[in-house]
Queue: 4 jobs
Job 1
Amino acid sequence: MIKLGVVGANGKMGQEVVKMAIAAQNIELVCAVDKLNIGQNIYNDVYIEGDLNAALKVHDVDVVVDFTQPSTVFENIKIYMENKVKSVIGTTGLSDEQIMQIKEMSKSSNTGCIIAPNFSIGAILMMKFAQEASKYFSNAEIIEFHNKKKKDAPSGTSIKTAQLMMESNNNFKLGNCEETETIKGSRGGNYNQDGKGNIQIHSVRMPGFVASQQVIFGSDGQILKIHHDTINRECYMPGVKLAVEHIFENNDFVYGLENIL
């Protein structure tokens, strides 16, 4: 039985994780942490607690799932490592430098950690299809759509998609003319690493969306669009459960759910 803690338990994703844990036959919800509704009994005498460090010391937690905020997740991960509690991180907004630091912390503390920008199996397939298509197209851009309450832009999913695409093609935008933005930001953000990649990412934020992404490829005479829509947050739970089960059985560092599918 996997003893699970949920951090950000009152958030929209956290609530889904709690429901997943309650329904799963191999998972026991033992700890819930949030800054809101402290003291609330969310299930079977599991109460919302406000002090993450204290909660981990009191409860026998095997794995924690974190869906919190970009401003707090990095410090949370330090606490998981210090307490030697394995973690599944769904909060996005971590920088490349922070991810490398977490990888080193995971190794030095001998504590497993999975960071997944997206837990939807369909979204993972969208990323893999985009990676494959990148071998055959010289131009590509990404448009990602999220609800207006998402705080980080671009999304972790779009960044991970761009990283995978760059593994197949390190120079998009070939043949484009020299561009001038009459309104700053009109062309989105140029994602590149050491001058390579050059993938424009456009972020849309408005009510009505949960999460959607479109990768557009172009070459002379043709356009290829790879599109994924998230209709509700339940679709993430099979991926979250898979990540929890993996990190419970293993003690590695993983960035991207595609690496354990």
Note: The longest helix spans residues 96-109.
Job 2
Amino acid sequence: MKVCLLNDSFPPVIDGVVNVVMNYADYLRRDHGAEIAVATPRYPNTDYSQYPYTVVPYPSLDVTAITSGYRAGVPFAEKEIAALSAFAPDILHAHCPASALVLARILRERTGAPIVFTYHTKYDIDIARAVKSRLVAHEGVRAMVSNIESCDDVWVVSRGAGESLRALGFQGDYRVANNGVDFERGRVDAQTVAKVTADYDLPNGVPVFLFVGRLMTYKGLPLILDALRQLNDDGVDFRMVFVGKGADRELLENTARSYGLMGGEGPDKVIFTGAVYDRDVLRAWNTRADLFLFPSTFDTNGLVVREAAACGLASVLIEGSCAAEGITDGRNGFTIEQTPEAMAALLREAVKDLSHLREVGQNAMDEIYLSWRSCVADAYERYQIVLEEKKRAALPRRKKELSDYLVALTARSMGEQEKLRQIRRELFDDFKETAVGMMENFQEPAGLERLWHSMSENLQEGLDARRSGEDPGRGEN
């Protein structure tokens, strides 16, 4: 099977969806013998030849100032579309409803391959952050939903993600397709943990709380700081480690300082490590911590919660959130109301019995851990069903929207433009071959006049042939 994976980000950018795409590519290739092509917006000074599969970077615009480091893909790139079409994919699997999905729709017009789409996160919140106009943001969400409804098979990463998509106006069918974890099941050895954490003040016996992910306020991080302020005022000793980067890091650091949690006379109780891309280092942090704090109602799946579980680390989650699906409070994790007071109350009790936290963490490892191998195997099986439905013409029929006609027109016109460019290249090559001889005619007015008459006669001959239909090829040229 040939699978084209499309996303609006790829290394050097690292985030949860990039992690998904890379694991799909690896396990589809290794376990199922699939041929893989990845399409992604191009980032400057990036080597895309290092991967064991094809990566086709297409043009992008620098909008990093308003998108926290992400570039905007420009999917109308004939050269890259031609390369992906030549790959002849059986399945197009898009993981972002922006340029990646537009490109997938163009490729579907070119190749006939069906589109599978996975809805990973609440993109409407990201749109609202990037676009200040409510009207523009609203239209952006409508366009996104229309884009998703154009797909042949829609997947969501949790039940809550499906409800979120439905709330945006999506009217089609969807299925839940869980994401997995690329961490091995089990805790990291003590020597490795000590080496990774050696530069930080983490005294033995002092509880360590952990967050891993983008440092954005909408992930509930102010709630963590507000809760820790209450613990600090009560005289509870702890360390809170934030691993990651994001647009709101400076704001969070300033808040921690104003609360007296860092930058004072005593030890910093809140630590920001910056971004960590080494998966073994992340496993070590998850092994060192006593409790993972993830009070996000934004995330539709929360892979970091399952990564923590892989290392025997229990999480504190908001009751009813997508990340809390599958969590039984007090058994394989903890759920609270979405208030600093509820977080602070749970942490006060938790630090009294760290051995209980390890028991709950072990249950999380046993009960909510999902490997990427099993998740990709399920996806591969679904691909086969989609292809069989396509063969039987049994894929869901949709009402044609304006965007469908525009995409089809774009795909056709881009192909015709490539033909015209080829003609121009051939004409230019022909002209180059005779240019030296022609230059001799420019040395005298009589020679130039002869050249001009010759060219005019050839042009008129071509136009006459086109009108009469005797020589359509020459007439077109």
Note: The longest helix spans residues 402-441.
Job 3
Amino acid sequence: MPPEEHRKEESVPDTESRLKICVLASGSGGNSTYISDGTTSILVDAGLSGIEIERRLKSRGLDPEKLSALLLTHEHSDHSQGVGVLSRRYNLPVYISKKTKGAASHIGKLHDHKLFKCGYTFMIDNLSIHPFSLSHDAIDTSGFTIERNGLKVGIATDLGIATAMVKEHLKDCTALIIEANHDREMLINGPYPWPLKQRIQSRIGHLSNSDSNHLLNELKHDNLKHVILAHLSETNNTPDSALNTVGKALQNTKIKLHVALQDVCSQIVEI
């Protein structure tokens, strides 16, 4: 069943509300994304220490005290490291699937948690959240669409293949955060052991730059404003390679293409 709605306070919907997105960190060293409509502010994942996430929020003028909730895509530590600390420090409910909660004992005690199930939409104050399944080597990896007043953000990182279901959920988005993990040639010729290379290229691994190019060719439309490339490998990719390969899908469009980095949080993207 879908989780109960979390409401810090009742608010009147504002048809002029816009969504702000800030990728605090992205990559194998830690992942976290901030999304807010100005009233409701959430984190999708918290894969850095609590202190570092606080620092990055404040570096962009964002107040961790005003967070409403935290969503967790899956249990891997580069997405979950700071979840427990932030939940306890700021009294945040953590939205998490039942299987992921069972696999994420390392995050420790939570202030509160709400169980979600992929395929069931739920609300966090003004934000409509729809979780959907991704093909990745965690127990129950989720992507999300987050909607408010006709604006829709799609988040799909950590997936080995973009299935028809994933494409269905990501269509008609105003902004997309999608994976561009590796350049295939760099991966094959790089230092990783062969079993790890096979895992990364598999259906439960990560999308390559060319995979993301093909995906965007199917998803692009006139109302898509921003695409943020996420989870770049520091060993098997470069921002320039990702931009050049994926950017070919967006030629002759007005869609703005960004790259999220590991060590520096992004600028705030507003839609």
Note: The chain has one domain: 20-270.
Job 4
Amino acid sequence: MSEQPPSDDTTDFGFRTVATAEKRRLVGQVFSSVASKYDLMNDLMSLGIHRVWKRYFVATSGVRRGDRVLDLAGGTGDIAALLRPRLGETGSVVLGDINAEMLRVGRDRLIDRGVLAGLDYIQCNAEVLPFADATFDLVTIAFGLRNVTDKAAALAEMRRVLKPGGRALVLEFSEVAAPWLRPLYDFHSFEVLPRLGRLIAGDADSYRYLAESIRKHPPQAALRELMQDAGFERCDYRNLSAGIVAIHSGYRI
């Protein structure tokens, strides 16, 4: 795994350029701020479509009974809750997130829903995972990779902890394929989302950052190349909703 970049390097935080060492703190502030309203805001921002994307993501994951799954950036537990029934009594999900507040919200929410067995929680950095090599059958990350400072390091770690034959799946906002849709999507992202954030979560800036982070995230072909560079084989992607989001996959052979 690559070493951490020097602290005087710079990276993007939305449309801003910040010191690499500073981004993790800034992203942490964003998600600590939005954690309590995260699910409600997701419903409002996507008109509920994010739930369809997530169900499709899990339904096409190829997960099997008895598998062990690592769900990174697990947030409020949506993916873990969808995965858990497919794994049977002997399967399990480790829900990991770098943000303690998001992890707490997810844990409490799953407990309230009675989703208890076969679930573990860990606060962890996707760039330096605290697991042995070849631990998991599947690693998922949904709407989280774009917030990782060193995406190459995170992808390399995802591959490292996969068993041979294991699969990594990335669900992430991507580049809209339909030209006619882009102006509407930009208006929704930069005009509607910050206003919703201010009204519902009392935080316009965090939702402005989240919209900007989508535009700075590698588009489909570039992310596929990043996964190949990390050592994944059979890398591919599938667009959903005209490329608003895409599911990327790769295998550890």
Note: The chain has nine helices and nine strands.
